[in-house]
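User: Sequence recovery, please. Input:
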């Protein structure tokens, strides 16, 4: 090798080192998000109110980040990759997503920005870019990797991620970013408690009231008001039946008989579910992890029906035997609103990995 080439070699090596260091800094760059997120339940409360009355829910980036903070209590590990959390923001009516991860103990920030919409029961995310640090990763590379994992919850179509809304505890009818907020349209809860067609019963009471004397008409109208004001009361079916007990009208008595028939059918279905499900042994490691978390979840609920479901899960884990049919029967007997309460309490108090295991064990 000539002396001239030997003199140039250190300069070349220095340039290579600088390029490698710069690339490493760009890949590991993790600025642009804040980890100071409060874990409040304001977003859950907004959703619950929307489910009860219908309408739009406006969620700020802080609201959404608090939902993730409640759900991702601890980092989620997937092989050599650890997902530390998920952070969102809004820019030019598009969504920004930042996911700090570690790979073999090296920290990275994965980010993306894109448009969101709702189409045919799927939330559609059309990305503008994907980045690791400051390095842009080809969209086709990321989407093809995700496409290989297509399932009923997530699929890739026409360059967009399609996320099914069927797994949500609420029915949504719109999903868009407006003026720096995520605006979600939520369908009003349909009154259908404990597998009884309460809306049908209410309609029959309205029709029956037209043919009653003044005193009985007043009693029935009060019952109708009670249904309207307490659609999510745990014992509303039994309460309605009791309140109608003094009405002598044959038409009203037929309605009471209908309620009795529905309650008997529900009880028979629950017994069948429980007897046919059998029991299985509890995973002791899971039981020890979630015992305190489920206790906290149950303690956070004031609704007796929702709390009873979580308490039953806790009791079965403590007993050493799981009868998932009993839990599923209790859960199915809840209103959609109460189911949302159960989901929210578990998301708030149980770590994500354990929550997935509980879903697998109990089927809810």
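Assistant: Recovered sequence (364 residues):
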């Amino acid at each position: 090798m000539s002396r001239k080439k030997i003199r140039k070699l250190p300069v070349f090596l220095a340039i290579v080192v600088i390029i490698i260091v710069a690339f490493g800094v760009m890949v590991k760059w993790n600025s642009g998000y804040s980890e100071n997120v409060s874990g409040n339940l304001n977003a859950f409360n907004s959703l619950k109110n929307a489910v009860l009355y219908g309408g739009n829910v406006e969620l700020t980036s802080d609201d959404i980040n608090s939902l993730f903070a409640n759900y991702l209590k601890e980092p989620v590990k997937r092989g050599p990759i650890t997902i530390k959390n998920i952070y969102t923001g809004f820019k030019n009516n598009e969504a920004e997503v930042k996911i700090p991860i570690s790979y073999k103990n090296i920290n990275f920030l994965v980010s993306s920005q894109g448009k969101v919409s709702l189409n045919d029961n799927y939330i559609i995310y059309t990305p503008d870019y994907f980045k690791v640090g400051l390095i842009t990763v080809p969209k086709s590379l990321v989407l093809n990797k995700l496409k290989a994992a297509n399932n009923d919850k997530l699929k890739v179509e026409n360059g967009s991620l399609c996320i099914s809304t069927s797994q949500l505890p609420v029915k949504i009818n719109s999903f868009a970013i407006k003026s720096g907020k995520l605006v979600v349209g939520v369908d009003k809860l349909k009154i259908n408690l404990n597998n009884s067609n309460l809306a049908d019963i209410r309609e029959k009471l309205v029709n029956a009231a037209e043919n009653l004397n003044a005193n009985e008409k007043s009693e029935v109208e009060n019952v109708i008001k009670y249904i309207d004001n307490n659609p999510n009361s745990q014992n509303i079916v039994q309460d309605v039946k009791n309140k109608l007990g003094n009405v002598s009208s044959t038409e009203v008595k037929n309605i009471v008989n209908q309620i009795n028939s529905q309650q008997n059918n529900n009880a028979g279905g629950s017994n069948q579910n429980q007897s046919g499900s059998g029991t299985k042994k509890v995973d002791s490691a899971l039981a020890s992890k979630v015992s305190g978390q489920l206790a906290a979840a149950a303690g956070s609920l004031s609704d007796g029906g929702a709390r009873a479901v979580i308490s039953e899960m806790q009791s079965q884990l403590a007993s050493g035997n799981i009868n998932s049919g009993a839990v599923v029967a209790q859960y199915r007997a809840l209103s959609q609103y109460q189911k949302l309460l159960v989901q929210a309490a578990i998301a708030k108090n149980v770590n994500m990995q354990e929550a997935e295991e509980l879903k697998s064990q109990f089927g809810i």
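The CA atoms of residues 67 and 209 lie 46 Å apart.
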